[in-house]
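User: Please predict the structure of the protein below. I'd like the answer in C-alpha cell form so I can feed it into my own downstream comparison script.

Assistant: Understood. Taking the following sequence of 76 residues as input:
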Amino acid sequence: MTTTYHLSANDLSVDFLKSLKSMYKGKTISITVEPEMDETEYLLSSEANRKMLLESIKQAENGELVKVDIGKANKK
C-alpha cells in the first residue's frame, strides 16, 4: 500500500505521527520528504514548456491575443 500526503510543514504534528504509527503498526515504513514545486516551477521545469510559455508571454506583451468564446468552445 502506498499513501501520499501533501501538507505544509507547519501542519506536521505529534497527532499526525501517532496516526501513521497506528496505520502501520508493527510494519517497517519508508518516509521520503521533498518540497513540492509550485505551479510556475512545474511549468518551467521542461525546456519545451519553458520555450512555449516564454513565447506566449512575448506574444501577449505584443498584443497578439486570441479571444475565445468559452460558451461556444464547450459546445463543440
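That's the full C-alpha cell string. The chain has one domain: 9-75.
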